């Protein structure tokens, strides 16, 4: 079984994906229990489309006839490189466009936040009939362009520099697995173009304190050499912030919470070697100060082996 | 690649330790840590300055204070001492906060309330819109909807009432000449700078009395909040050793009495009926059609009636109603004209350039829902300059009153033009025009931002002449921000700037003749 897991290492799963929760919370996450093998780079483009008509104004679910349906498109380049078999580095940089189907508000577009993750697998051992692996993951993100944050719900992002810490465990029994992770995201203050703003009180400054975010994610499904299918539940809970007041506009430091259900599929071809396709979708089942978004996405990834001399499959023979 | 690892891993370790602490959650306001106000001059003779509504500075009587050698006064001195004997951090912070200036702090509180209440009501199920009710302020939609005209009027009334209250207070200060407690007894500690200004009746309390009374009328749903601020402010004065209780009581009573004149005026200034009725809105539309023009139509879904359609009829402060009508600008380009077609095309071209710099300008000046509105923004601009001038409270009040009366009258003249011409917004004439901020729900001509801003720039340039160029540049940028946003035609902005300046000139005339000098 460990052999199987090692085999998995060269496969490109790359669950780094911009999840358009709503109001431009593009949480880039890296939450799968699979590592790239040493000196292998998995890289490729991803496309995502997300839209919502209803949103939660605080806890009140409503529509907004002056926005209609708010949609977001994302094109991203993402990569995962195996520094060692137990240490991977991942990166992503999305280009995002947003628009509202009704009303007069101008659409937005631009390169959003770049993110960089370091994924470490300190523990990998048999447990019962299956295999347990544990991971520690750290990531940073920062805006790559001067996009506008204070133009929600059409802003392409929130501009906050973030630092994330994630603990994750993966257990695989035969072809079935379960992965659970918890993430804490520290978010830095942002600056907006106004010189004062009201939250639950007046702030005579252009600096906005951003609440941190806690997220947990549980995923389970089927995993083989060529095919992965999984379902997931993801819950984002903002640690603080405030609710949108009645008929007000959203604000970057709102309490944005979202519980999502989704699925993820990946198929890897035998020929050409190292080429894989992924498809994913998710839906916000409950939330607070976020849109009830439906998101779909897909990507094509290629593994490039930088190992000299030895063939790409060498890691399999160990 | 190994080399990369040597860099990346330590970088992450450092980041893991440092970033959670570096991620600052503190956001201090620009006026949080101001030093205590230390006026350059006391303006002891301000009792002779020309009041706004008072017939004379002594229209309301203030009884003579008790002598400083009486047991009653000594008991009041002891109240200061007992507070000062054990001061908590909160109390020290309270003193620090209020010592920056009474007019400044109450203006900030007013801006906060405007921002809190500046929210358009959500529609009813049948597509109509509910209106706020002053007699039931806490029911949805809360009273008031503190939109720009409402806010302009609120700032003007509060500022003007505070100014008259301080003129009256100064009259009695000079008349009775009772010194501050620290001048009577040197053992009284002072937590703020000392002043030669007689302390009875208290200027801070006169400001409080006027503010509380006016704000009860203007923001009836937040009386607890207002009252709590008033109590804190009074306590801060006692703790600071700046006033004895009788200074405060006399000042507050005077401030309230003066404010009553303003409350009476406000109840009769026609703002109560400014929302208009369906019949009014239909008439505005039909009159426009009768002139052969395309009338303004709400771009909101469902269509919302124009904001405060009768605000142009509200009673002005700086000139009479005939003058107000005479300030109405000439008509905008005809909606069918080549000129209007060109201007619409210009707006369409401009919104293609949604550069970062345009967003910065548009959003800095947008002052839309949930903000203190353009008049509040100009109050903030003025306040930050006034802070540097070390004005006495009465001069602060006078300058704020001049500014805010100009802004209110600018709102009236602007709204008169908007409703009279009932001119469409660019996005109505060309739906392809997408805007960089929300489209305000009232006719286009003339721009409120332009009118507000140039009236403010005019009076502020008189008050702080060395900043005249900056004020005029700001006014111009504020006006153009509406063109960049795609919500105004160029003519709206240019004629708005001209009209606002004319309104501002009336404030300058008043300033030149109110006896305050500069």
Automatic annotation (TrEMBL), chain A:
Residues 1-27 form the signal peptide. Keywords: Signal. This is Transporter.
From TrEMBL, chain B:
Keywords: Signal. Gene3D superfamilies: 1.10.606.20. It comes from Niastella populi. This is PA-phosphatase. Residues 403-497 form the Phosphatidic acid phosphatase type 2/haloperoxidase domain. Pfam families: PAP2. It comes from the Bacteria. Transmembrane segments: none annotated. Residues 1-22 form the signal peptide. The keyword Transmembrane helix does not apply.
């Amino acid at each position: 079984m460990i052999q199987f897991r090692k085999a998995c290492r060269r496969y490109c799963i790359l669950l780094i994906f911009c999840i358009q929760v709503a109001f431009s919370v593009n949480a880039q996450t890296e939450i799968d229990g699979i590592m790239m093998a040493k000196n292998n780079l998995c890289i490729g483009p991803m496309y995502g489309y997300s839209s919502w008509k209803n949103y939660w104004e605080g806890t009140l679910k409503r529509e907004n006839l002056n926005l209609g349906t708010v949609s977001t498109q994302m094109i991203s380049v993402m990569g995962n490189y195996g520094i060692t078999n137990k240490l991977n580095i991942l990166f992503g940089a999305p280009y995002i466009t947003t628009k509202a189907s009704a009303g007069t508000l101008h659409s937005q577009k631009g390169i959003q936040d770049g993110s960089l993750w370091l994924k470490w697998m300190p523990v990998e051992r048999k447990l019962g009939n299956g295999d347990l692996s544990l991971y520690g993951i750290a990531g940073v993100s920062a805006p790559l362009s001067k996009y506008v944050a204070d133009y929600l719900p059409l802003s392409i992002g929130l501009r906050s520099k973030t630092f994330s810490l994630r603990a994750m465990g993966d257990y695989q029994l035969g072809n079935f697995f379960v992965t659970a992770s918890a993430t804490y995201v520290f978010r830095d203050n942002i600056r907006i173009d106004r010189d004062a703003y009201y939250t639950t009180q007046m702030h005579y400054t252009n600096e906005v304190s951003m609440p941190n975010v806690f997220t947990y994610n549980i995923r389970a499904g089927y995993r083989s050499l060529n095919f992965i299918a999984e379902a997931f539940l993801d819950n984002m809970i903002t640690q603080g912030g405030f609710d949108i007041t009645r008929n007000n506009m959203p604000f970057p430091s709102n309490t944005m919470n979202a519980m999502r259900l989704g699925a993820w599929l990946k198929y890897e071809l035998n020929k050409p070697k190292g080429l894989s396709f992924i498809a994913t979708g998710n839906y916000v089942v409950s939330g607070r100060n976020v849109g009830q978004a439906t998101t779909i996405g897909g990507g094509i990834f290629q593994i490039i082996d930088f190992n000299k001399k030895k063939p790409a499959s060498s890691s399999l023979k160990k | 690649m190994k080399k990369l690892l040597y860099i990346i891993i330590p970088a992450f370790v450092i980041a893991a330790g440092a970033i959670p602490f570096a991620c600052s959650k503190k956001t201090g306001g620009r006026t949080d840590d101001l030093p205590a106000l230390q006026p350059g001059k006391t303006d002891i003779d301000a009792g002779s300055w020309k009041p706004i509504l008072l017939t004379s500075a002594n229209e309301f009587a203030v009884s003579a204070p008790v002598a400083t050698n009486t047991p009653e006064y000594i008991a009041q001195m002891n109240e200061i001492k007992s507070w000062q004997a054990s001061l908590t951090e909160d109390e020290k912070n309270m003193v620090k906060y209020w010592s920056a200036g009474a007019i400044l702090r109450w203006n900030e509180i007013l801006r906060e309330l405007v921002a809190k209440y500046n929210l358009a009501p959500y529609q009813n199920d049948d597509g109509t819109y509910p209106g706020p009710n002053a007699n039931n302020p806490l029911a949805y939609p809360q009273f008031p909807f503190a939109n720009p005209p409402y806010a302009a009027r609120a700032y003007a009334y509060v500022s003007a009432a505070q100014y008259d209250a301080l003129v009256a207070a100064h009259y009695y200060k000079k008349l009775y000449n009772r010194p501050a407690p620290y001048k009577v007894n040197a053992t009284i500690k002072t937590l703020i700078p000392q002043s030669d200004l007689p302390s009875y009746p208290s200027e801070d309390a006169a400001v409080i009395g006027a503010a509380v009374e006016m704000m009860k009328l203007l923001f009836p749903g937040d009386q607890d909040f207002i009252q709590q601020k008033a109590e804190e402010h009074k306590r801060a004065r006692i703790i600071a050793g700046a006033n004895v209780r009788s200074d405060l009581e006399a000042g507050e009573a005077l401030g309230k009495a003066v404010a009553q004149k303003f409350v009476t005026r406000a109840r009769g200034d026609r703002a109560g009926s400014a929302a208009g009725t369906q019949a009014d809105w239909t008439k505005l539309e039909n009159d426009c059609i009768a002139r052969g023009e395309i009338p303004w139509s709400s771009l909101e879904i469902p269509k919302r009636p124009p904001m405060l359609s009768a605000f142009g009829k509200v009673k002005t402060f700086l000139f009479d109603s005939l003058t107000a009508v005479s300030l109405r600008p000439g008509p905008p380009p005809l909606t069918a004209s080549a000129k209007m077609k060109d201007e619409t095309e210009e707006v369409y071209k401009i919104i293609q350039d949604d550069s970062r710099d345009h967003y910065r300008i548009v959003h800095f000046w947008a002052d839309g829902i949930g903000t203190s509105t353009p008049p509040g923004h100009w109050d903030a601009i003025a306040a930050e300059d006034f802070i540097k001038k070390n004005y006495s409270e009465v001069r602060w009040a006078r300058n704020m009153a001049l500014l805010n009366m100009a802004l209110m009258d600018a709102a009236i003249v602007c709204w008169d033009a908007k409703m009279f011409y009932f001119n469409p917004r660019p996005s109505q004439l060309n739906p392809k025009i997408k805007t960089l901020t929300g489209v305000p729900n009232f006719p286009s001509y003339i721009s409120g931002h332009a009118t507000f801003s140039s009236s403010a720039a005019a009076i502020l340039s008189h008050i702080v002449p060395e900043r005249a160029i900056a004020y005029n540049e700001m006014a111009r940028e504020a006006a153009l921000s509406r063109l960049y946003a795609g919500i105004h035609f160029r003519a709206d902005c240019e004629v708005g700037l001209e009209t606002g300046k004319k309104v501002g000139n009336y404030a300058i005339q008043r300033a030149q003749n109110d006896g305050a000098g500069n």
